[in-house]
Amino acid sequence: MSQRPAQDDPPPPEFAEAAGADPAQHHLGHRERLRARFRDGGPRSVADYELLELLLFRVIPRRDVKPLAKALIARFGSFAEVITAEPSRLREVKGVTEAVALDLKIVQAAALKLSAGSITDRPVISSWSALLDYCRAAMSYDRIEQFRVLFLDRKNRLIADEVMQRGTIDHTPVFPREVLRRALELSAASLILLHNHPSGDPTPSRADIEMTRQIVEAARQLNIAVHDHLVIGQGEPASFKALGLM
């Protein structure tokens, strides 16, 4: 004998359809309840897939998006990994159109802008935790290794954040002369070096250590300080300075 839904729960679409109700009303009611829960309880009141649903409501207005949200989480692992995934990989999931992929990338860009705002127009060194949050947001989930540099002025304020090189899944060729040439162009007084390890393990490699040594020595000859080199993986970044590697 089939079990009826609880009295205070709406019937599932197939039950409603059998009863002659409009199944569209079910997912519309679900949307309103989910929005109300988020409004009253904030981000902690919803699961990752539900937060994705809230985003998908905007670009898919007339369809139940819960299966798509769950499929995206199953494929990529978390909300953060979904919005940072490459558009081509997002579109591999059935139901993800170009418009959906674009909307998710807009959310990622907004998150990075918000994070970057916490380190702009203030000394980066005194906003270290905000800097680490920004680095994790920008690089933790990138599947390709990248090397970027934060160029700072004499008051340690951010002049520019630039990706200098992108490589493969485990290697990025870095040329110290290019880093220092750009520092001179920007009249930078100091640098913070950053790169990610797509494997998730932030432990510096021998190549990382040698490359950092070359940049530090070349920068010293130009009176440019290198404050640190951070390796971004999963969890806490590895700091060359904290590890005694520079």
Question: Mind explaining what this structure looks like?
Answer:
There is one protein chain. This protein is α+β, with helices and mostly antiparallel strands and 246 residues long. The chain folds into two domains: 13-112, no CATH class; 122-239, 3-Layer(aba) Sandwich (Cytidine Deaminase, domain 2), CATH 3.40.140. 47% of the residues lie in helices and 13% in strands. The protein is built from ten helices and five strands. It has helices at 13-18, 23-41, 48-59, 66-76, 79-84, 87-90, 98-117, 128-139, 176-185, 206-221; strands at 146-152, 158-166, 190-196, 225-232, 238-239. A five-stranded mixed beta sheet has the order 2-1-3-4-5. Helix 3 (48-59) crosses helix 4, helix 7 runs antiparallel to helix 8 and helix 9 packs across helix 10 (206-221). The radius of gyration is 23 Å and the shape is elongated. 26% of the residues are buried.
What class do helices, strands and sheet pairing give? alpha+beta
Can you tell me the CATH superfamily of the largest domain? Cytidine Deaminase, domain 2
Low-confidence segments, ≥5 residues, pLDDT <50?
A: 1-22
Number of strands: 5
Shape verdict: elongated
Which strand-content bin applies to the residues? 5-15%
List the secondary-structure elements in sequence, H or E: HHHHHHHHEEHEHEE
Q: Using only CA atoms, what is the Rg?
A: 23 Å
The CATH class designation of the largest domain is Alpha Beta
The percent range for helix content is 40-55%
> Within the CATH hierarchy, at the fold level, what is the topology of the largest domain?
Cytidine Deaminase, domain 2
Average pLDDT rating: 83
Supply the number of structural domains: 2
Count of helices?
Answer: 10
CATH architecture descriptor of the largest domain? 3-Layer(aba) Sandwich
| Biggest sheet features | 5 strands, mixed
End-to-end distance, in Å?
Answer: 71 Å
Strand order in space, largest sheet? 2-1-3-4-5
